[in-house]
Amino acid sequence: LKAEEEARLKAEEEARLKAEEEARLKAEEEARLKAEEEARLKAEEEARLKAEEEARLKAEEEARLKAEEEARLKAEEEARLKAEEEARLKAEEEARLKAEEETRLKAEEEARLKAEEEARLKAEEELANIQKLRKKPLDSATNVATIFATGFQIIAAEAIDYSKKSVVNSSALVENLLGAKSLESAVQIRSEYAQRSYVDFVGYLTKISEIYAKLAKEAFEQH
Known about the structure:
The protein is mainly α. The chain has helices spanning 2-134, 141-178, 183-221. It starts with a helix and ends with a helix.
């Protein structure tokens, strides 16, 4: 009986130890599996966060590049429009200046012709009055004709010289106006040009009047 009891106790002890060992191994296995699962989940979470971060950074980079490209295109478009507007305004300004200059030249030409005609008529009238007062015809008609022919050639030369000078001054005016840095500068340039033109025009008319007066005097001296 004693031997049976010892065998039974031994068997029970072995069974207990075996059960404990199995429980320990099972617990260790479960802990290992849990740790592996947690490590896997952690790795997946890190991979997900990394992918999200990369996607966010990529989206931000694309947005930045897109914004820079749009800003560049906008700046280029504004520069193009500005250049076109400046070119249009320059063309309009050139056309306006050209029209104004043509109008001014036409007015000066009309005034010049009118002044020349008035001076010529005045010289002829003075000559006629002188002839009438002296009550004798011209004895040197040929000399008088020569005097007037020469005088008209001088007048024509003066007119050509004045016209050339006006064209040169007009071209210089347009060039200076287009190069003006401000409205005040352009106004100053036009003002100075107008003053010079007026002085030149008055000087020209004075010279023509003097030529006609000289013609009348020389013609009178031929009587």
